[in-house]
Recover the amino acids of this structure.
């Protein structure tokens, strides 16, 4: 059964130095509050997995939390580059970052394999591309029935999955909707899962076939309103596109990024305080 | 009557025209999404737009800034999970047209969106694959839209992210890729199509006001011109109007035009 906990308690209990972590959410429902809390608690040598690293991993990478990144598209959506990710790959700053690069289709399949307790994913992919040249885990398997050669890649099996969802009931059953990405697979592929939600409700009132993660597959559930901002939560708030654009400037320069991280994450007690800074025009004028 | 227009508008309009009505189209974010939505709002109202984040049959009122904008989900016929999109819909063989952008392209329409320079010590680290490798291999046909320059149309790619025709001829078929590959590359200067045998891209129509020297000077290899190389039909007033209205609505909603990526 999931335990209701504060986000800081959940991260302290379930995220350890050296863990492999998947924090998923495809543009939508990205668990930013949890990312900040991991930075605040100073986790190191994390092996991060995420299809689209997005700003959440740019922040974790820039903060020095990660030693490895497995990913399939590393840009700032609609804006351009992830500068902290690039600085780590190109210049080893602040620490060297190993990368394991795959395609969206592969990682999506690899999460499915992980959720299904299979050792590898099989897909029709990568043929003719240069991926296998730089990633020796991209291999092939021959179909025993047709002889077709297919790509085979390792399943994703994180120590911890972290996702954000719209609602959970008092028992900790979780409901999400809209663009649901690979969150269900990430939770089921992981040893333990932390879920942050917009609100705690008496009952979910969900129709059959809704995307529900039963309480007993989740370790901790935490109520964190607006916990996915600057991404969005369908039915609650919109994507903060202006923050995604501002991030380009904040993250481009090491000093400016470090000042931002210090003021907005290290020196804030929790996400609520972070959000109050987002609404403070004096702070925004200095850091954006 | 034709109105004044920019080379980017010519590119988007020319790309939009390539999308048949009723085609099932897997849409990349940025320029492909602009062109696909222009097609949907003009001659192809029944085109089915699929985005890799999960929306099937998306009919966005403004251009999405990210691949998973809420407007895509709200206007879609259905929204499925990301594994389902890639497994059942793309790999399942249900996509007529994959509409892609690219950072770099070579003469055989292979795409690089990974690195410029050596992989381990890149000069420029690009975002990477996204869905493109499997879109370029599994969609029945592929359209590519790219702004043309010596930096984008290059002689040799440092990394093949998504496969066009490999080193030409029947190399793609021999490699066993299911889809037939790129059928056209639309740039801000011209339209290029693969030669039926060599599969090398050659210029088939030149946009009005562009000359051969400009195209040669903006290509990193010795570009060939088809023997019956024509002139692209300029944007019609209605196409421009719909495109500009779409961009205006997008700017009002997001503060930017939606194809910045």
């Amino acid at each position: 059964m999931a335990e209701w906990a504060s986000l800081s308690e959940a991260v302290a209990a379930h995220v350890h130095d050296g863990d492999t972590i998947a924090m998923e959410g495809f543009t939508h429902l990205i668990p930013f509050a949890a990312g900040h809390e991991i930075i605040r608690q100073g986790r190191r040598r994390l092996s991060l997995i995420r299809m689209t690293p997005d700003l959440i991993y740019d922040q974790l990478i820039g903060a020095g939390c990660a030693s490895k990144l497995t990913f399939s598209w590393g840009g700032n959506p609609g804006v351009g580059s992830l500068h902290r990710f690039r600085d780590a790959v190109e210049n080893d700053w602040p620490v060297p970052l190993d990368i394991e690069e795959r395609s969206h289709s592969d990682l999506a399949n690899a999460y499915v394999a992980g959720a299904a307790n299979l050792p590898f994913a099989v897909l029709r992919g990568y043929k003719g591309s240069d991926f296998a040249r730089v990633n020796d885990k991209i291999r092939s398997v021959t179909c025993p029935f047709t002889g077709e050669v297919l790509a085979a890649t390792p399943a994703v099996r994180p120590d911890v999955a972290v996702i954000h969802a719209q609602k959970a009931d008092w028992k900790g059953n979780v409901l999400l909707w809209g663009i649901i990405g690979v969150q269900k697979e990430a939770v089921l592929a992981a040893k333990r899962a932390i879920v942050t939600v917009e609100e705690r409700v008496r009952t979910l009132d969900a129709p059959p076939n809704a995307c529900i993660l039963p309480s007993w597959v989740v370790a901790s559930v935490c109520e964190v309103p607006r916990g996915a901002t600057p991404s969005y939560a369908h039915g609650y708030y919109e994507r903060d596109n202006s923050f995604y654009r501002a991030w380009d400037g904040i993250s481009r320069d090491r000093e400016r990024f470090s000042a931002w991280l210090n003021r907005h994450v290290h020196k804030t007690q929790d996400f609520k305080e972070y959000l109050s800074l987002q609404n403070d025009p004096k702070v925004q004028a200095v850091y954006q | 009557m034709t109105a004044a227009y920019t080379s980017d508008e010519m590119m988007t309009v020319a790309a939009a025209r390539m999308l048949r009505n009723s085609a099932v189209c897997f849409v990349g974010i940025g320029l492909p999404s602009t062109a696909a939505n222009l097609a949907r709002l003009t001659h192809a109202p029944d085109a089915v737009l699929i985005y890799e984040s999960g929306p099937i049959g998306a009919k966005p009122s403004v251009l999405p800034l990210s691949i998973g904008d809420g407007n895509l989900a709200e206007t879609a016929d259905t929204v499925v999970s990301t594994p389902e999109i890639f497994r059942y819909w793309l790999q399942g063989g249900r996509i007529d047209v994959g509409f892609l952008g690219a950072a770099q392209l070579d003469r055989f329409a292979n795409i690089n969106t990974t690195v410029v320079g050596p992989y381990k010590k890149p000069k420029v680290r690009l975002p990477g694959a996204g869905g493109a490798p499997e879109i370029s291999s599994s969609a029945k046909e592929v359209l590519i839209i790219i702004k043309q320059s010596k930096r984008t149309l290059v002689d040799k790619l440092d990394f093949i992210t998504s496969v066009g025709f490999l080193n030409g001829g029947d190399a793609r078929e021999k490699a066993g890729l299911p889809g037939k590959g790129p059928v056209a590359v639309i740039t801000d200067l011209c339209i290029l199509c693969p030669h039926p045998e060599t599969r090398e891209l050659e210029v088939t129509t030149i946009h009005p006001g562009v000359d051969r020297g400009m195209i040669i000077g903006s290509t990193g290899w010795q570009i060939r011109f088809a023997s019956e190389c024509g002139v692209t039909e300029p944007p019609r007033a209605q196409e421009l109007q719909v495109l500009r209205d779409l961009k205006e609505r997008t700017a009002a909603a997001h503060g930017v035009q939606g194809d910045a990526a």
